[in-house]
# Entry
Amino acid sequence: MNKVEEIKTISGVNPLKCMKCGKCSASCPSFNEMDIKPHQFVTYVINDDVEALANSKSAWKCLSCFACIERCPRDVKPGKVIDAARQILIRQRGQEGLSADEIPALLDEETPQQLLMSAFRKYRR
Amino acid sequence: MKYSYFPGCTLRNKAKDLDDYARACAEKLGFTLEELTDWQCCGGVYPLGADEIASKLPSVRALNGAKEKQQDLVAVCSACYHVLKRVNDDMANVADIQTRANNYMALSEPYKGEAKVLHYLEVLRDKVGFDNLKKQVVNPLTGRKIGAYYGCLLLRPGSVMNFDDPENPTIMEDFIRALGAEPVVYPYRNECCGGYISIKEKEHSAALCRRITDSAAGFQADCLVTACPLCKYNLENNSELPIVYFTELLAEALGIKEVR
# Structure
């Protein structure tokens, strides 16, 4: 499967539905941290440039808050596109965003188990 | 009334106050939380990928456990509730996920989303009733100004969660009012605290949390209430404002916990 088919399969998103209203970018709490903005995600899929999406800062900045998904008037679900880009990356050996060795230094007395579980799911396969 | 209960990983450890008071208050209010016997961690985040099956199975196991007991499934943690409810929606409506998950599970009867997932606050609103709850309050939290912090996971996506209006929710404010306190409505109550990003990028989460707590403090809230251990952790790390679990407030009002 090529990368475009892969990202469509994982995300379930039809990028052609987007009408570029920008509501997703306006809603995104990570907008300032992102190099590729939420309303631009689908363009990279249409232009067959999934590599750029997977290698973007944005792939690691999405918080899965679902604000973009909630507010999209066309039900495009931009958050699912960037999550799929991250999936494509972390499903490859050596591309994880977090290794088990790093964990002890990141913990404090109050760290909830929920944070570790969520981070492991989001940063590695 | 008895419910199947999914405590989740954090309620067994760092969030004991969320769990203990939920159970004790339930008994006081006339319902029982029966912990599922073989639950596994929900994973903390809903697996968004349409091809991710294995990571959805712990939820399917819990949902099927409730179905077999013919009980609704109650969660207290926002993340557990979110994950269970979304996986249940998949099992009811997404044929591919339903088929593949059932192939793994090999249950005596396939699971097709029959169980109903409820958040503890929904039980209070829809089963106990806030009016009835108000009558059972022995220590009304009079004079306290409390901001509801909803965060993301209880509300979005609204089409699946169906918890409350995702843009203008009222359930926590109604809960606060039932306990005799004054709810403080502030604009950032359903904005993200940063969630899991705080494992590696503390400053990113800190900036988001400060916006939330500054906003609440600006509207004179003297504490914030949440259902999510990760929201509590992130907010507490970045604010002087006390952050409490909703079950702690409930326990104070019902006379189970000493009023602070």
Observations:
- The mean pLDDT of chain B is 97.
- The longest strand of chain B covers residues 2-6.
- Chain B is about 45% helix and 10% strand.
